[in-house]
Specification:
This protein is globular. The model has no long low-confidence stretch (mean pLDDT 89). By secondary structure, it is an alpha+beta fold. It has one domain (3-116). The protein has helices at 65-84, 97-105, 107-119; strands at residues 3-7, 11-16, 21-30, 35-44, 47-59. Helix 1 crosses helix 2 (97-105). 27% of the residues are buried. The protein has a five-stranded antiparallel β-sheet with strand order 1-2-3-4-5, covered by helices on one side. It is built from three helices and five strands; from the N terminus they run βββββααα.
């Protein structure tokens, strides 16, 4: 199981496995609908794999990057499931195929992280 390097309400870094794969999430402001905007980066083997700022909270919510991380992990796991099934409904993926293939190799780590951020402490 990985570990958190930083974990505050507005920024976190999570290291998968033994160290070269890292997920960073930051609360970077609010959009026009008063949603917290979360920016993320994923590094694989020390190199940038993907990044984006397309995750948001509910309107008026306070920044809490674990929720942003939880959403990111949920989208990654959904893409892995679709990937493993060969995308039978041709819905495409939330992430590029290189990121989805990486997530597939990190499936156990991502499932553990999903439990930690989406299901522990009474959160769903």
């Amino acid at each position: 199981m990985g570990s958190f390097l930083a974990d505050t309400p507005t920024a976190l870094a999570y290291v998968l496995g033994n160290g070269l794969d890292v997920i960073n999430v930051h609360a970077v402001g609010r959009d026009d609908d008063d949603r917290v905007v979360y920016q993320y980066t994923i590094f694989a083997d020390g190199a940038l794999l993907t990044s984006g700022a397309d995750l948001g909270s509910g309107a008026g919510a306070t920044p809490h990057v674990r929720r942003g991380l939880g959403a990111l992990v949920s989208f990654l796991l959904a893409d892995v499931e679709r990937f493993q099934l060969g995308d039978p409904h041709h819905n495409g993926y939330a992430f590029d195929t290189r990121t989805v293939a990486w997530a597939d190799t990190q499936l156990a780590e991502l499932q553990d992280l999903d439990l930690a951020v989406n299901w522990d402490h009474g959160q769903e």
